[in-house]
Backbone:
């Protein structure tokens, strides 16, 4: 308890507890809310706060990457999908069987206990690739990425390439035809219908 | 962490100094945003052979005060079926992210508060409020987070124009983020650092060492993408009056609308400062002109350029915008990065 209070009154400790508290609350809202807008907003702001943890730890580069990738790109894509819903109404959720909820909830609780218990062994945790003083964050990440983790890095790049090509193929049918011109000729709909019939 | 930068050699930055700096940025940039509206109307008027605001005060100078009083006292309307909480939060997100982005760029020179002032005398106020050594990425990331303002505003207001505005926000900002990132990557490769201070020092060799001469393509790409990210004409599709009434801002009035406006102007200033520091030599002295005057001049130039372009070009259609982004600008940006890489290797 004394340790907790002592750490609470340092700058880093206070920031950590504040960010953790807010992150948990926000993600709780994400899970529990029936409203698309609340869930989306709280998930996005939770992601922003998570980048705060990286800044506290001195990992500026990772913090900024968290901001750009999750907040700027991934969440924005989610929200694009959310536009198909009426955002101002509450969504009726289909509640699945109680057993599934029980098992999943129990497993999550177990995970949480394990995560909270992990720092007990914190002395046995060692940083294999600690930050170098005077060397920038980005350089450190780059060196590890292009030496030890080169193969996973390249595999991830290849997977992204595959996903991109698949996306283009899925979305790219009839891309060379202009929808506006089809409307003008009033033949577009018929054409699509006939193609469907052929299939 | 990084001690080799210019800031490291200067007097110690205290929490009080940073707080003063933050208040200064908030106060001055908000005021500049207000004055910017007046300048914009005047410049547009002169370019179109009109007079612009003339009635309130000499040359319409008090128009800013009149507009301010109107904004503050106007009735605050929340539409009946709107999601009130998100509706109220959205403008704050725009304004807040715009000002947080400003905290990592150099705004005004650093100075020391004179000793004769009580309590705060002798406090050192830094040029950059928080000198993170990944400054450029931080600014870009924060501006990327700024897209939630228009997005949530459009989705929360239960208005079809708002939804269309929100959809346009998402596609436009997401697409042009790619261009901004790729275009600025080439100068980053040349400098080998993400810190804005390092960028400034890399161009300290005078007029010829400006990156605009080495990276003209990246400079133009960055400017175009900057116009799109700050929602300026010819890319202001988010609130294009002729098509979607006012887009995401349709249902907003009074100070909530004002916050969107201040956010937009703060973003314009941020992009101007970024362009000046990354491509036009930053705040280095230029001959006999002091550095802080130089950066003010450069920022003013970019601000004027935005007004100039608004007067000169018509809007583009959304499909033209996407065509420009993915079929023209992105390939050019990628080729520019590859060529820069080859040149650095050889």
Residues:
């Amino acid at each position: 308890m004394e340790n907790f209070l002592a750490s609470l009154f340092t700058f880093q400790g206070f920031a950590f507890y504040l960010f953790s508290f807010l992150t948990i609350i926000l993600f709780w809202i994400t899970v529990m809310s029936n409203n698309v807008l609340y869930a989306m907003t709280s998930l996005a702001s939770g992601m922003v706060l998570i980048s705060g943890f990286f800044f506290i730890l001195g990992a500026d580069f990772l913090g900024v990457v968290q901001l750009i990738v999750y907040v700027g790109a991934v969440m924005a894509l989610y929200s694009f999908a959310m536009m198909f819903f009426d955002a101002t109404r509450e969504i009726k959720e289909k509640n699945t069987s109680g057993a599934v909820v029980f098992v999943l909830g129990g497993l999550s609780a177990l995970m949480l206990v394990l995560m909270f218990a992990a720092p007990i062994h914190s002395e046995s945790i060692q940083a294999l690739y600690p930050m170098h003083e005077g060397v920038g964050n980005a350089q450190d990440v780059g060196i590890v990425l292009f030496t030890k983790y080169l193969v996973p890095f390249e595999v991830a790049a290849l997977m992204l390439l595959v996903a991109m090509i698949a996306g283009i193929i899925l979305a790219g049918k009839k891309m060379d035809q202009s929808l506006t011109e089809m409307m003008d000729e009033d033949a577009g709909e018929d054409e699509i219908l006939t193609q469907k019939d052929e299939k | 962490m990084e001690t080799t930068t210019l800031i490291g050699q200067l007097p110690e930055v205290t929490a009080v100094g940073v707080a003063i700096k933050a208040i200064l940025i908030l106060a001055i940039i908000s005021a500049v945003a207000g004055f910017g509206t007046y300048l914009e109307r005047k410049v547009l008027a002169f370019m179109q052979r009109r007079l612009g605001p003339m009635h309130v005060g000499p040359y319409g100078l008090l128009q800013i005060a009149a507009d301010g009083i109107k904004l503050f006292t106007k009735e605050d309307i929340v539409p009946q079926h709107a999601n009130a909480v998100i509706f109220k939060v959205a403008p704050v997100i725009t304004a807040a992210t715009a000002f947080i982005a400003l905290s990592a760029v150099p705004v005004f020179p650093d100075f020391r508060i004179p000793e004769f002032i009580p309590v705060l005398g002798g406090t050192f106020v830094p040029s950059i409020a928080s000198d993170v050594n990944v400054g450029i990425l931080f600014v870009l990331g924060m501006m990327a987070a700024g897209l939630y303002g228009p997005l949530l505003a459009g989705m929360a207001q239960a208005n079809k124009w708002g939804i269309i505005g929100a959809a346009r926000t998402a596609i436009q900002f997401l697409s042009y983020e790619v261009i901004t990132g790729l275009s600025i990557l080439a100068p980053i490769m040349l400098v080998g650092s993400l810190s804005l201070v390092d960028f400034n020092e890399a161009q300290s060799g005078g007029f010829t060492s400006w990156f605009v001469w080495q990276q003209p393509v990246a400079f133009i790409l960055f400017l175009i993408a900057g116009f799109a990210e700050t929602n300026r004409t010819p890319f202001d599709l988010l609130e294009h009056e002729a098509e979607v009434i006012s887009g995401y801002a349709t249902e907003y009035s009074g100070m909530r609308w004002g916050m969107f406006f201040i956010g937009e102007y703060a973003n314009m200033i941020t992009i101007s400062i970024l362009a000046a520091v990354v491509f036009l030599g930053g705040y280095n002295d230029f001959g006999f002109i002091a550095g802080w005057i130089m950066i003010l001049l450069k920022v003013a130039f970019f601000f004027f350029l935005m007004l100039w372009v608004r007067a000169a070009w018509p809007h583009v259609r959304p499909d033209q915008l996407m065509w420009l982004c993915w079929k023209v600008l992105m390939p050019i940006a990628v080729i520019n990065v590859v060529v820069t890489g080859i040149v650095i290797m050889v």
Summary: Chain A touches chain B at residues 35, 37-38, 40-41, 44, 48, 55, 58, 60-61, 64-65, 67-68, 71-73, 76-77, 79-80, 82-83, 87-88, 133-134, 136-138 (CB under 8 Å).
